[in-house]
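Exercise 7. Given the encoded structure of a 304-residue chain, write a plausible sequence.
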């Protein structure tokens, strides 16, 4: 009981398309099972009692993914725009050209690349030519971000662009409330104080007693989604729960603002980070990587 199942049963007194008995399937959660019948609750709340003598077959089915896990890769990635308010965007069909107008420090690939997910509204080689022209006009190397294994990735590769040797990542999602419950009790009473600063939809949580924090993380709200970015802990202060404390402070703030879904990017070559986020209830939604023209992919583009 409690398992999601599908049951095929006979519809007595009815004839099927082939002239034989009629059948129907009932999909839902098994609430009860006894010697005579089973009770199945459909997704809409309707409860169906099925006489076991009418059952033709049945089997368990995987739980239905949460709504947040059913969004498209493009829709999930669109929330990253909230991280950097200085990013200029322009549509290219469903693609989005992104350019950081006032970068601070290193150039970020996500903020200085074309989100190439969905249909660009023209042949992919033509779209890539427009991408190259857009970034050339802004003194940037052309770069596209694609969903790993997608048709767009195959078309970009067929056009002669090559994947960057670094930067492959996965976008992970979780329920804000679930993560807050999964955080250890020590996260609310860290070894060092964690202060929250920020304005509007942006916040920074930092742990430390001096001017230079020893642990820090950033968050940005976009409707009821909150993005976490740049979580870092000084190596000499690791294993003290400061990373969890920073996440706890950011998600407390996000929950107060009405956030329901948390997202972040984890690089594929960071098993430690993956284990940390998985323990808090995050799960990978999709993978993504960057492509550049063959002439610049091996050397690496300006964006890092």
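Solution.
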């Amino acid at each position: 009981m409690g398992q999601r199942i599908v049951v095929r049963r006979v519809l007595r007194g009815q004839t099927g398309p082939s002239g034989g008995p009629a059948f129907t399937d009932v999909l839902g959660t098994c609430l009860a099972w006894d010697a005579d019948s089973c009770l199945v609750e459909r997704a809409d709340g309707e409860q169906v009692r099925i006489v076991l003598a009418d059952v033709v077959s049945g089997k368990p089915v995987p739980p239905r993914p949460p709504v947040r896990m059913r969004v498209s890769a493009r829709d999930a990635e669109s929330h990253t725009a909230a991280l950097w308010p200085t990013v200029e965007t322009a549509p290219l069909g469903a693609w989005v050209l992104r350019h950081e107008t006032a970068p601070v420090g290193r150039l970020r690939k996500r903020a200085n690349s074309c989100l190439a997910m969905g249909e660009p509204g023209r042949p992919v080689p033509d779209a890539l030519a427009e991408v190259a022209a857009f970034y050339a006009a802004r003194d940037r190397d052309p770069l596209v971000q694609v969903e790993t294994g997608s048709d767009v990735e195959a078309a970009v590769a067929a056009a002669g662009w090559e994947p960057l040797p670094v930067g492959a990542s996965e976008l992970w999602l979780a329920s804000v409330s679930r993560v807050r419950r999964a955080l250890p009790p020590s996260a609310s009473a860290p070894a060092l104080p964690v202060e929250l600063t920020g304005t509007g939809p942006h916040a920074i949580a930092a742990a430390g007693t001096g001017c230079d924090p020893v642990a820090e993380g950033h968050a940005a709200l976009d409707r009821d989604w909150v993005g976490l970015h740049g979580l870092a802990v000084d190596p000499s202060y690791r294993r003290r729960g400061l990373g969890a404390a920073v996440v706890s402070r950011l998600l407390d703030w996000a929950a107060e603002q009405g956030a329901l879904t948390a997202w972040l990017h984890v690089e594929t070559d960071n098993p430690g980070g993956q284990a940390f986020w998985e323990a808090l209830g995050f799960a990978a939604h999709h993978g993504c990587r960057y492509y550049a023209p063959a002439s610049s992919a091996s050397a690496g583009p300006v964006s890092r």
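Remark. The chain has seven helices and 17 strands. Students should compare their own answers with the one above.
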